[in-house]
């Protein structure tokens, strides 16, 4: 028996949909002054027997959805309004500046810096290492607001840092283009790497700011509508990403050896694109102000305790499992399936257009059909739609049952649904568990975890996760029976690793109310913080070791570093 003093709130109506319990969110509204008192005025001193009512979340205590409709004050927001035009502009700038920068770096590294293939790979991985500082940037932003704001001010700072880095790259690129020989001054090469790092660091700050701000605004939404602004935010990101890809393709082309435009000119245009939204951000970015700063030590101790919350570390575990196992791919094996399917060339813009269209459709479907459905049901679609169509494609192509580029395209287009589902991984669960005052550091920690996993997977893409480790390239060209089986077995291994991502669903709360229940009454796990730190350090040290091996000729021959073996 649970006695309630004052007002007694009945559990929400239940309905059976999709094979399990589903909450009728149409009954939920944010608290509005005295409405709660009026609804419960005739139910004072009432005893609620939980054994006689249906429980909608597990635990000895339950989360009162009617009192806590939204997670922070401010009311529901709409992204596509004048008030949030600054956030839209900042999102565009953040995505385009980073994506276009990555495209411009390809001809810069391969042509103008005259790096070897292994040095090129090592530089790309080395530049990614400072991106691990997301956690520290988020912590500093939470502790020390600039002119009273924690997101807007750092967003402007990130844009300026990025512009300085890209401007420096434009100058160095112009100098390299004026040289008649490919000999490069080692000091200028190092300076170029530093400029790349500065530009990437600025992009990181902008991404952290817009991502955190989107989650903060989503927490203002009532329970039934929470997540609507996230869908709008993701739509803006996808449109901006497509524009960045189109810019890179049209300006530089697909052949890095012969770009359509000089890299220095493309870099100067990118600087203009980076700073163009600055007036809109300064004028139309609305954010609550904070007058007092908090020391890093105090905020760090608070967050140390926050990471021990079951709701937090379980959500982080889910994100890590999905990020790690869904990004593992054996590119050599996938390429061979593509060759067997009859592909010789394809329209890159056309493929990207289809991909963005599918992801866009997934975002819309989530917004109107899955926003208030069980999380596990929705996120299970990521491994399902990644593995099922590609497994069917691999079997048909490797066994020479169906080798058609139309079948290949249809299966890969279906697999893009998985990409759409994955766009929500670091948004939807975080919205429910982030606590006010620790938004930046929590988002920063998630981005750090995703980045360190990404570095680990990318570092091993030419080593442990290299398809040619499992088959002989010469036999594959002859299309022998044994070669077909070797390629298929390597792909089956890759899909088995992808399937391990489903373990993460065990840690994920089933829905919004479960997440709030776990956050408020789930308790703490003292060893969780230490486990997270050990996980990050292990992956960072491993990746740095591989980078050192790539720069060392006597070690770069090892297969783990992408070599063909040492004699």
Automatic annotation (TrEMBL):
Localization, UniProt: Membrane
Transmembrane segments: 84-102, 122-141, 153-176, 188-210, 266-286, 311-328, 349-369, 375-402, 487-508, 528-551
GO cellular component, one term: membrane
Bilayer topology: Multi-pass membrane protein
Pfam family, one: BT1
Primary subcellular site in the record, as a coarse category: membrane
Keyword set, alphabetical order: Membrane, Transmembrane, Transmembrane helix, Transport
Keyword Membrane in annotation: yes
Signal peptide residues on this chain, from the entry's feature table: none
PANTHER family linked: FOLATE-BIOPTERIN TRANSPORTER 1, CHLOROPLASTIC (PTHR31585), RNA-BINDING S4 DOMAIN-CONTAINING PROTEIN (PTHR31585:SF5)
Similarity comment: family membership: Belongs to the major facilitator superfamily. Folate-biopterin transporter (TC 2.A.71) family.
Protein name: Transmembrane protein
């Amino acid at each position: 028996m649970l006695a309630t003093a004052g007002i007694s709130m009945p559990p929400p109506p239940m309905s059976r949909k999709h094979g399990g319990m589903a909450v009728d969110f149409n009954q939920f509204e944010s608290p509005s002054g005295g409405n709660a008192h009026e609804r419960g005025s005739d139910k004072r001193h009432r005893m609620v027997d939980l054994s006689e009512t249906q429980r909608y979340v597990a635990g000895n205590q339950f989360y009162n959805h009617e009192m806590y409709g939204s997670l922070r004050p401010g009311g529901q927001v709409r992204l596509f309004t004048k008030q949030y035009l600054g956030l839209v502009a900042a999102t565009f700038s953040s995505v385009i500046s980073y994506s276009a920068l990555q495209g411009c770096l390809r001809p810069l590294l391969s042509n103008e810096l005259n790096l070897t293939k292994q040095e090129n790979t090592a530089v790309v991985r080395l530049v990614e290492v400072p991106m691990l500082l997301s956690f520290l940037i988020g912590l500093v932003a939470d502790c020390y607001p600039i002119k009273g704001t924690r997101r807007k001010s750092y967003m402007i700072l990130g844009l300026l840092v990025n512009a300085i880095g890209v401007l420096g790259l434009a100058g160095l690129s112009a100098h390299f283009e004026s040289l008649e020989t490919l000999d490069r001054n080692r000091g200028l090469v190092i300076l170029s790497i530093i400029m790349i790092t500065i530009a990437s660091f600025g992009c990181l700050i902008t991404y952290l700011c817009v991502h955190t701000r989107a989650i903060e605004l989503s927490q203002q939404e009532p329970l039934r509508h929470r997540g609507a602004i996230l869908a709008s935010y993701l739509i803006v990101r996808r449109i901006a990403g497509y524009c960045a890809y189109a810019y890179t393709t049209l300006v530089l082309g697909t052949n890095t050896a012969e770009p359509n435009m000089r890299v220095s000119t493309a870099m100067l245009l990118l600087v203009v694109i980076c700073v163009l939204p600055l007036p809109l951000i300064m004028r139309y970015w609305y954010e609550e102000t904070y007058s007092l700063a908090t020391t890093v030590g105090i905020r760090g101790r608070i967050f140390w305790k926050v990471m021990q919350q079951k709701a937090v570390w379980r959500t982080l575990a889910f994100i890590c499992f999905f990020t790690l196992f869904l990004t593992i791919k054996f590119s050599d094996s996938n390429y061979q399936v593509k060759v067997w399917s009859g592909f010789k060339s394809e329209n890159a813009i056309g493929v990207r257009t289809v991909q963005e269209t599918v992801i866009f459709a997934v975002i819309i479907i989530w917004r109107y059909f899955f926003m208030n459905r069980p999380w596990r049901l929705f996120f299970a679609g990521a491994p399902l739609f990644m593995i099922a169509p590609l497994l069917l494609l691999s079997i048909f192509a490797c066994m020479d049952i169906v080798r058609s580029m139309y079948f290949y395209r249809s299966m890969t287009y279906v697999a893009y649904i998985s990409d759409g589902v994955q766009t929500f991984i670091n948004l939807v669960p975080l919205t429910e568990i982030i606590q006010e005052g620790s938004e930046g550091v929590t988002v920063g920690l998630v981005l750090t975890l995703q980045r360190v996993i990404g570095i680990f997977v990318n570092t091993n893409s030419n080593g442990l996760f290299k398809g040619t480790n499992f088959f002989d390239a010469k036999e594959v060209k002859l299309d022998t029976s044994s070669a077909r089986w070797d390629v298929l077995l390597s792909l089956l291994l890759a899909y088995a690793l992808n399937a391990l991502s489903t373990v993460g669903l065990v840690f994920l709360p089933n829905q919004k109310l479960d997440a709030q229940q776990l956050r408020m009454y789930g308790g703490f796990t003292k060893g969780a913080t230490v486990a997270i730190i050990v996980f990050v350090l292990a992956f960072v040290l491993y990746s740095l070791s591989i980078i050192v091996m790539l720069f060392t000729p006597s070690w770069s021959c090892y297969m783990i570093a992408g070599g063909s073996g040492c004699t």
